[in-house]
## 1
Amino acid sequence: MALVKKNILKVTPYAAGKPIEETRRELGLKHVIKLASNENPLGPSPRALAAMRACLSGVNRYPDSQGYYLRKALAQYHSVACGQVLLGNGSDEIIDILFKTFFEPGDNVVTSETTFLEYAIIASVYGAEVRTAPLRNFTYDLNALAKKIDSRTKLVFIANPNNPTGTYVARKELERCLGRIPARVAVVLDEAYDAFIDVKDYPASLRYIAGRNVILLKTFSKVYGLAGVRVGYALAREQLIGYMERCRQPFNVNLVAQAGACAALKDREFLRKTRSVVLAGRSFFYSLFERMGIAYVPSQANFVLFDAGRDGVTVFKKLLSHGVIVRDMQQYGLRTFLRVTVGTKRENEMFARALEKVLS
Ligand SMILES: Cc1ncc(COP(=O)(O)O)c(C=O)c1O
């Protein structure tokens, strides 16, 4: 009898962005920048940092299992009830909770090709079949996606904007698609990057959660600059959140993270600054790519996907030797593409200089 569950043998673990310290050590470089994991280049919000420091002397106690203050603050922020908010140790954990709550053997999940890899990785841990629709123009093709749904589909994942392409689906298309999906299917709208949207027709998705099986995923890892303490949350109707609550660990969001997230939510100035750095950085990258004759995908997120026109892993390694960590797209099957996260102005310029050297 096998020790390990059969499906675990097939799981490909998530490959995280290369850490700065590891790159310094391995390559003997002094100055290394990381533009690989769509983090906030400005650091955490100063208000969050102060709140996290202030709570450190209390870490001998367990955190509030109910996350009372953070859930209350989020409920107020989104004008929903506290019972419509589920906290997670990053939205990654909420994806896992979704499978714990909804998945039964024989069910499948539907998503797109070339999307956030955790959907398929966590699905494979649970032995779920993942049915993927191809992208169209680097964008979720919601028509193709709806056609993949069958009588055993339990969950549909739509990353909006999508990672790693940065593209988004507009309100009309999304509503048409939601209208086609049977009511018994839970539709997950993953909005990790919604703070960086700069278009008018992005869906106001909160209006879909009432009376439907639509679950929104949000995170403090991007615009709020708290990737390292791990906080994400889901918004859905109370009954669904109640079922998901049964499946989470009692202390899944730690004390420091709860304090940091509460304070970050109020730091409107930091959010405004981050957004303006990201929007300016995106334009800087577009101009750079256009000047260099490099094809890129216009993005609504804090990263840009581009086609180096040659082997992406080689370009990644060469950029690394210049102290710049980006992400090659081999795992996604996009052999000549790379994804670069918007950094500070100085970091973007360092990336530009390195790219020009590497591709010249
Ligand atoms: C689309 C998408 N969803 C979710 C996440 C996970 O975020 P968290 O740090 O909250 O687990 C990411 C992280 O990169 C992401 O790109």
## 2
Amino acid sequence: MPAGENKETRKEVEPQPVEALTDRDAEAIRRLLGQGSAHAFQSIEDVARQTGLSRGTAQKVVAFLEDHRFVVPDHEEPWSLRVNERRTCAIGVSIRNDQLIGVITNLRASSVLPPEHRRLSSTGVDAVVRDIGSLVLDLLDARPDKTEAVIGLGVELSGHIDGRRGAVVYSPDLKEAGEPWRHVALAELLEQETHLETVVENDANALAVHEQWFGDGRDVDDFIVLLIGGEGVGCGLVAHGNLIHGVDGIAGEIGHWVMDPGGRECRCGNRGCLERFVSAQAICEASGWPSQQPLEGLKVAAEGAREGDDVAMAAFVRGGEVLGRSISMVLNLTNPSRVILFGPPQLTDPAAEGEPARRFIQTVEEAIGQYSFSFAAWRQELVPKAVDERLGATGAASAALARIITQPNVLSGQGR
Ligand SMILES: [Zn+2]
């Protein structure tokens, strides 16, 4: 399907302009959508009660959601409303090295189809934009109900991303003629390519938005998301209910905290950065099993540690200690009540992976307790979660949904 057809589809179902929403309304929508999938609201009063809004404001928010078919009458009980789970809403794309993973989701960022995988034809800017455009068209084509407009595209990747401007400031993974990407206005290029409102966000920040809207951050205002990847460590900070970007989008880059100035050389040019202790690659190297494919290598290292390899087990414990020390620094800095730790199952899923993961998490918790100041560690709760292949793309879709749903001017066709 050519790109133009999608634009037409959007126009056919273009909603009427609605009254602008305030930040408080947006917060109410977040709480309303964050309810479980079986949840229905029995009346406007019920919505008001559950979101803490006045009746008038609840009415305005519900009218907005109904206009876009985000909520629909519950067929079994005609007087009640439920979130329209079947309405396809967003596309999320994750860029990982030379791969794209794409999902098409409903309003809760739940993927309605199996994820699509693509190998990038090259990591140059034009090729990446073209490849994402083609993936988006295929996902639009595959969706079960083509009468509903998809409202936005979210793209996530690691590196220095200015999420508010949708720009890749610096990406060591994506190279144009051998040089890392610098200052690429990726959201703008993708909007031209796909005709979809586009949000580009750092991978850990996109996950933080996902957790805030649909995951383990729904009930707290202050939490952090940590993401341990193949080569790096990312962090998304949510304080007082807001994702913190900082002036240039660097906030949360704890992967390059120098934990040991005499440590191993890092791709950033310094030595002993956090990610040189706790990424999959770092643990593989310290285990004595360096690997070109760190996430695969980590499975081998974990197997070795389970079978009694002391060097491998020491690498898991050392990684946990340095990570826990880093988390204590974040606790002292922002005082969150929850730390959501995403990582490969060999690090974050002791029930499935056994001793190396158990020792890793245990050491993280011990180091947090030892190094945090005063009460900082007492009330925080560590929630380890294993990453799966669709997580990044789901986070990207969430980042798009969260931004676009709360900007009604975009939804009513008055945006860019
Ligand atoms: Zn570094």
## 3
Amino acid sequence: MRGVFVTGTDTGVGKTVVSAALMIRYPESRYWKPIQTGPDDDTAEVQRLSRCTRENVHLRGERLPDPVSPHLAASLANTRINLRSLTEFAETERWVDPWIVEGAGGVLVPVNESELMIDLIELLGLAVVVVARTTLGTINHTLLTLEALRARRLQVVAVVMVGASNADNRAAIQHYGQPHLVHQMPWFDPLTPEALREWAASPLGDCLG
Ligand SMILES: Nc1ncnc2c1ncn2[C@@H]1O[C@H](COP(=O)(O)OP(=O)(O)O)[C@@H](O)[C@H]1O
Ligand SMILES: [Mg+2]
């Protein structure tokens, strides 16, 4: 599988919005949300924001109704997430298009009794985009996430900071974390497909270099 895995420092940081921007910037890509917990439908939101076609999204995956961590959501649904069966198709089907795969929560979110979201990233063998907040606390959360990814020798292609720009936090993440690139996505009010399209077309939207 070719493409990127979009993870974040937390849930609700902007992974879905950044994934939609990547779908706009790289329209030949295919979006996939392998694990979705709770009532949100990130795939529908990416389609709405990016206006990509049904052919550009992959619908297969774990869909668990409770808005909790995947390991718990699965257990509450009397099931268990098996990362190998979830990703099996990626090995057999020879996709040529790049993938934009969105995680759930952050890298150390448990998916079953012994595996974490970072194991899914490793299995897929994708480079990683880290989505982070811009506000106080983000330096620690982002550096911890970068350290966890580096410990597994996973390649980080970009950090995208979402929200009102904070130059000091951005400089600190660049200095201490040394990710390839730190991007800044403003807080759109309102968040519309047009506003996102404009950002995605700008040099900052070129997250994959
Ligand atoms: N750049 C942005 N401008 C405006 N709203 C945003 C932006 N990024 C995220 N949001 C909003 O913040 C919330 C969380 O974003 P989302 O992308 O769903 O986070 P995650 O996928 O990390 O859980 C959503 O309501 C989303 O619409
Ligand atoms: Mg999301």
